[in-house]
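Q: Second attempt. The first request was missing the SMILES, so the protein and zinc ion are both included now.
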Amino acid sequence: MANLAGPETCVRTIGRCIYCGSTERLSSEHIIPYALGGYAYLGAASCQLCSSITSRIEGRVLRKGGLLYSFRRAAGIRSRRPKVDLCEVQAVVNGEVVDKLVPYEQAPHFTIIRRFDTRPGILLGENYDPVAKPRWAIGRAANQKSKIQALGAKGFQETIAMGDSYERMIVKIAYCAAVGRVVLENLVPIANHLVLGEKCDIPYFLGEISREDCPGKFETLLSYSQHKHSRGYALSVQFRPFGGDIDPRYEAVVATMERSFAEIEKDGGVKTWRR
Ligand SMILES: [Zn+2]
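A: Got both inputs this time. The predicted holo structure:
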C-alpha cells in the first residue's frame, strides 16, 4: 500500500456530475480515494446525491467497520482526522471468545480483497453470466502470529460487512481515472451506472490482469486501452488501486468512445496526470 505524500491536485474541472449529469451543487471527486493515498481529484464533478452514494460506498470499505479499515490503520495510511483508535478484537483464549480493546497497530487483521480469474467478460467476448462470481482472497500480514500471541490468544475472529461496495469503489476509481484522462464529452459512460448501483453485472465489466498478461506495462499506476467494436471503441482502465507494486491489477471497462483514443488526443481531449 502506497502512503504517498503530495499536495492535492485538480486534474480537471468537469462542471457536471460525472455520474448523473446534474449541474447543481457540485463537489470535487478524488480519483483514488484520499484514504488510499490518492491526491488527484476532479473539480466540480459530483452532485450532492451522487456524492452521498459514493461516500457511503467508500465508507463501507475504508472507514471504521469497513473491509479495509483495520488494514489502513495497521499500514499507517493517512487519515483526515488522525486519532488514537482502539480496535475491538474477539480473541480466542483457552477455547473461550474474549473481547479485547487494542490499538489497531497492534491488532491482527485480515486484508480481504476481490480477486478475479480473468479479464472483464466483455473483453473476452463472453455473454454476461449472472452466476459467475468472483472470489474473495484473504491475505495475512507476516507478523500476525506474534500479534495474536501478544493478546494471549490462540486465534481471533473478525466480522466484516460485504455487499458490493468494494467492487463499486474499485470501478469508481477506474471511471474517475478515465474522466481525468479523456474529456467527458468524448465518452459514453458505462461505469457510472455500476457505481450508482443501477447495474449489478459488475464482474462483467471488472476483472483482473496478471503480470504475465501485461508485462512491463505497469510502470505507472494506471494505463488505458481501447478495444474496437461495431459502434466504436470500449475504453478500459488497468490499475492497481493500492499503488506501489501491490497486486491485484484490476481492469475495468468504463465507457465507450465513438472515436479512437488517438483521434481524441489529436484535438487535445486527452490529458496525462499522476496519482
Ligand atoms: Zn449526480
